[in-house]
Design brief:
Immunoglobulin-like; single chain; Jelly Rolls; 5 domains
Length: 763
Amino acid sequence: MNITIRVVSLLVVVAATRAAAAEPEIRALTVRGLQVGGTTTLTLDGDGLGKEPKLHLPFPAKATLKAPATDKQATFDVALGNDVIPGYYHLRLITEGGITAPVVVAVDRLPQVPFAPKIDALPIALHGTLAGSKPLETTVTGKAGQKLMLEVEAQRLGSKLRPVLHLIGPRNLQVSWSWGVPLLQGDTRLEATLPEDGSYRITLHDAEYAAPAPGYFRLRVGQWDYVDRTFPPVITTATKSVELIGNRSTAVKLPGGNPGRWSSTDWPADGNWSGPRPVMELSNGMEVVEQAEAKLPQELPAAAVSVSGRLSAAFEEDRYLLPVTPGSKWRIEVMAERLGSPADPSLIIRNEAGTDLQRVEDGPGSLDPLVEYAVPDKVTALVLAIADTQGRGNPKGIYRVIITPLTAGASRGDFELTTTTARVFLNGRTVLPILAERKGYDGPITLKLLGLPDGVKAAGLTIPGGADGTLVTLTGNGKPIDLSLIRILGEGEGGLSAIVVQKNHPMERLQPWLATELALAGPTAVPESFEIAWKPGKADDFLLPARKLALPVTLKNIGKPTSVKLTLITSQGPKFQGNTAQIDVNRSLRMEKAIELPATATEGEVVALIPGDLSNDSYDFCVKAEALAADKKTVLATAYTDVRQLPVKLPIAIRLDSDKPVEVKPGGTIEIAGSIERIDPMAGDVLFAITGLPTGARLEPLTVKAADKAFKVKLTFPPATPPGNLKGVKLSGSILPDAKLPQQRVRSREIELPLRAVQATKK
């Protein structure tokens, strides 16, 4: 069986209006694996599990509830047939109160048992939880010369445990040990040949002896077959076969004709396969595979191209010849660490004569090299050499070189789509944020929900050009909805497409289709409604940067909650501080303060703080209301307002008096005249700034007083300014709305200056 992910979707299950039962949650499982061709006893601890929960798996399985469930616990006997394919899968519980968030479970032919102090038979999968500093130990009896493999699956299953393994022999001497590696996403594997007969002790602990929660794990012991990566790691629809790289490297054929972002293949027919399925990324671009026996540099086209290779021998150096033109710019990126490869590559750029021009080691936040390179004068070809920084060789040392010309129109760009939502239980209305991470593509994106159940309607399915995202509204008709795994596909212009992915899902790289599942279901009975709506009357219908926005709402309550929590949801994507992963609060649309209303409240108000720098022309807004139980954690019901799209109203706009090109003479100074439109009456002095000027050019400092509308900017250019149109030179103005907040300047939209450099007049 082949799995081709054409458009796989995302698990999104958001509570909608309900009152009869609390939203269910799974906190712990006795085992996080199921045995193919066998029966596994599985106990789940959690909240809101109800009396008759149903176990949902994405393949045929017989799940028998062993005893009456309680709100806190349910036990199942789960029997799988022999035809279930080993890999990682999502497990969910469906209750009268909703759907649990997915739990990743491993499926293979190993017996699945809770962690015990002694192992009686091999191979086996032991399951447990490690907390704090205390290690866990178990023992196994072995023979001299016996090959033994130990592997911990923790971070790959979503755990925060940083596993370290020790194998101690009968004489209390350490035989081997291992710790987390990028190849296994921070998990660890140990392979050893036992030196003598006797009892061996297996010790597992956290790398810092301070295991954070959750610290669950799955420890496999014995012998099995696995695949870590494929070669090439990225394929096209024309690729006929790939090599599976693991403890049994073998070539397998691909079905072909598989459009999308990822593809998988069957395990070979023989073997006891365990671990994540082999996965390849599908590319629509030009892909080249290294010719391992080539003595001369392998020739590449003078265009955007990617190369897959591997550094399998010690001190190996792979070389590629790239035709270029003097003065052109290229972005060259090497991926290895991010592919889970043990290689630590360096990139050496040479000319055809073999002279080193530049050496690149680590890129931003990674051991992988990245450079934007300007080709020197008289150089018509570059030799790109890839080598391991420490001269190591490894058959698993794969890499990928991505080569992109940095010229206008050379790339159509791309985009990715994400959500942070975890689940959708639909009764009434649910709002789902979908965010776009744009990679050079600024056009509109149309969303399609594939497999949407009958009776469910969707709105807000367009992300406008340049926008961060959209708020999708799902509306039911009040009838029960069986659990459906739906898919969300985003389509851009020129054939671009992407699938919505759950952000930071543990399977995002290993089995990416799991990170794209969207489970949707509805109640078996219509509960009493819980509603929130925008308060009728006058309200601001635009966003003014560096100001506050009051959003009044009305509420209709149900049941007996102790309070109602209000949350603001917007279509703005995350704004980070520089190149860090830290959110920049000052650039984010956000609530002025947390709001929790009394259960009897019929009205409320969310006050939004509008940052001074808003890059989109408009943003979507809605308010979510959650009815909370006495513990202030359990959600009894959830409701959403409808979605409002509010345009951004900048306090100033700048315009040029003429759109005709202005001639720039090398070493000369030009003036460009324009006017200022002040929309905000509080807009004061305007300070001008410019971007995209060629090296050596400068803008004369300019501030226009509050009483003035006209302006003239002066630009001085260096003598070496090359002739031609100067693209990308953009002018903007900014004001300071509040003198007490000097860092909160508000900019106008940038306008491009029509500049054309001419050759200097010869005397």
